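$ ./design --mode recover --in tokens.txt
reading tokens...
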């Protein structure tokens, strides 16, 4: 087995890599429990399990929200709950494989480069997977009411997922398209002042790595009914404004050239560029206006007030209706407006 194709595995220390191989082999054999006595006691087993599952999103035969480690003076055991019969797992795996293959076949047919391949699967997940709010509520109390919402099967077959389900589905599709991709486990803020446990992706494109958080963009899609690319192709210094993670466990993401806003010239480094972007949208009578602002921009007034007044002005000049819905996110510095 070529373990070096997995981004998560590559970031592990030697003893952790041994643990990874033991755990992955157990998962591939669909074990309900297995011995980990060969693994060094200093290794964080739950961290390695998360890494294995993040690298291998097709593993769906047990409830990954309820994994137990039992340790004594003589042995270490991992016990899995919610283990499904092999006949059921085989059927699920068959469905998942076919669904994923159909999605990437469509993505390839509509793509002209690696960027558009990733955009296509990013948009697919936004428009075909709903966020499982009920599972979020029940799981926050330590009880999972719908464990498949945490994996790729729940996302792609049931169309319902929480963050690790969205991220697992993205990993599966990206890997099938030939990208190295992993799931990152950390903390995030979404329109809130406190952090919550969260999962997202890092994908490698032409030897450069980028953050992708399709979950938060899918929630914006639910809100506005339009695709969102706020968290597509970010580097470490951008996503760190509302995400936290152990960067020793992930490859460095140092480039922003894959960003939707950079690619489409919707990134403003100063007020003049901001005015030009909004003005150009007004002149073209765009239904949607997107712009991302540098943190170096100093507004003469409240940022949201400045942006909405600028938008009203340009819409009026263009003779367009000035009724619109909009969103401004200080964390991401992204402004979105939809004329209605």
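writing sequence...
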């Amino acid at each position: 087995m070529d373990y070096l194709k997995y981004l998560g595995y590559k970031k592990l220390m030697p003893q952790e890599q041994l643990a990874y191989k033991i755990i992955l082999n157990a998962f591939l054999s669909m074990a309900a429990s297995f011995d980990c006595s060969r693994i060094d006691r200093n290794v964080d087993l739950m961290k390695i399990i998360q890494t294995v599952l993040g690298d291998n999103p097709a593993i769906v035969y047990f409830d990954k929200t309820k994994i137990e480690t039992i340790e004594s003076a003589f042995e270490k055991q991992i016990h899995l709950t919610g283990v499904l019969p092999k006949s059921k797992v085989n059927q699920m795996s068959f469905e998942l494989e076919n669904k994923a293959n159909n999605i990437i076949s469509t993505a390839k047919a509509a793509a002209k480069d690696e960027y558009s391949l990733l955009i296509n699967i990013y948009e697919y997940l936004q428009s075909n997977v709903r966020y499982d709010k009920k599972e979020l509520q029940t799981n926050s109390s330590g009880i999972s009411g719908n464990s498949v919402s945490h994996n790729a099967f729940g996302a792609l077959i049931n169309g319902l997922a929480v963050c690790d389900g969205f991220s697992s589905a993205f990993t599966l599709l990206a890997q099938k398209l030939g990208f190295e991709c992993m799931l990152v486990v950390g903390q995030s803020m979404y329109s809130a002042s406190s952090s919550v446990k969260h999962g997202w992706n890092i994908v490698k494109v032409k030897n450069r790595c980028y953050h992708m958080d399709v979950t938060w963009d899918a929630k914006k899609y639910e809100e506005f009914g339009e695709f969102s690319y706020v968290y597509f192709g970010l580097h470490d210094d951008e996503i760190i404004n509302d995400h936290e993670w152990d960067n020793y466990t992930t490859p460095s993401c140092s480039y922003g050239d894959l960003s939707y806003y950079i690619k489409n010239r919707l990134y403003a480094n100063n007020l003049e560029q901001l005015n030009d972007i909004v003005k150009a949208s007004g002149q073209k009578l765009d239904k949607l206006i997107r712009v991302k602002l540098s943190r170096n921009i100093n507004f003469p007034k409240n940022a949201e007030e400045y942006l909405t007044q600028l938008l009203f002005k340009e819409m009026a000049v263009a003779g367009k209706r000035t009724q619109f819905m909009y969103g401004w996110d200080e964390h991401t510095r992204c402004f979105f407006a939809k004329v209605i």
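exit 0
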